[in-house]
Amino acid sequence: MSQELRAVEWTGTGLALIDQTALPHRTVSVEVHDVDTLVDAIRRLVVRGAPAIGAAGAYGVAIALLQGAREGWTPAGTREAVARVREARPTAVNLMVCVDRVMTRFDEGLDAVLAEAAAVQREDVEANRAMGASGADWLLKRVGADRPLRILTHCNTGALATAGWGTALGVVRELHARGRLEVVYADETRPLLQGSRLTAWELLQEGIEHFVQADGAAAGTILRGEVDAAVVGADRIAANGDTANKVGTVGIALACAYAGIPFLVAAPTTTVDLATPDGSAIHIELRGEDEILEWAGTRTAPAASRGHNPAFDVTPGSLVTGLVTERGVLEVSAGELPADHLR
Ligand SMILES: CSC[C@H]1O[C@H](OP(=O)(O)O)[C@H](O)[C@@H]1O
Fold first, then answer.
1. Per UniProt, where does substrate bind (predicted)?
2. Are residue 61 and residue 176 in the same domain, yes or no?
3. Ligand 1 pocket, 162 CB below 6 A?
4. pTM for this one?
């Protein structure tokens, strides 16, 4: 069911977003008809995941046009509202890329904007399916095992994080569909638990065998030889292959390098940002301290303690065995660069 799940759906008059803060225990939808509600939904991770917030941002241009027509905004006022959507979260480049793409149709009006946003969504699903296939092909050839594979993943990179199917979880789904997946180790992914709440929910929907593990267990699981490869997503990939992804990712890449197993990043080319030369130039979103210091409204740390809450970290391209995009697999640690991929 979740393969066809649509985290972001245009209703004809607005957006329907699956509220990912309510999963896995409640499946509820948030209706969006104005820019402030959309910006809030992106900031609170009601909708989340680089390609999914890219799709939401793409339709956000239509939301701004419709709201502007209702409230008598000038074109300049509407553009300012779109800019607030574009800036709702700083790290995932898909949000900026997809808004900018749809804005090229702004002067043509609502129908053209909606057509472009629909193309963004359609192309993301197509890209994810292609990534799943090429990532699975590469893994089966590289690992060369005649048995099903054991994959570790971090955060959520499935249908919930994209326009459908998923990026890293799309590779997992493809291995499962081919009968070549033994088990998935899904990091819980503190502090917001995208792994234990969302990835586990998606894997259960499809009967994929998995364990949820503490983020701190990942390196030991890898070093004990219990994993054949790690496959993760990305929020922004710099020109040199440095990759920003959910906090905790770089530790997995280091463990994979030490253990000598592949570390794959699966992301559509809309996540590649050639204008960012390397990982040091990627803006890492710092989120509120309370996400670290509380859980479900209960304080877990002492009252006087402070929280440090970077939402992402940067994995050097030298640790990225393969970057899986819809165009194939780029062996970054072997010197292949994203620009070689985008020509
Ligand atoms: C398919 S990309 C998903 C990517 O986005 C997540 O971040 P967030 O949950 O904060 O939106 C995480 O970095 C995933 O790898």
1. 48-50, 89, 194, 245-246
2. no
3. yes
4. 0.97
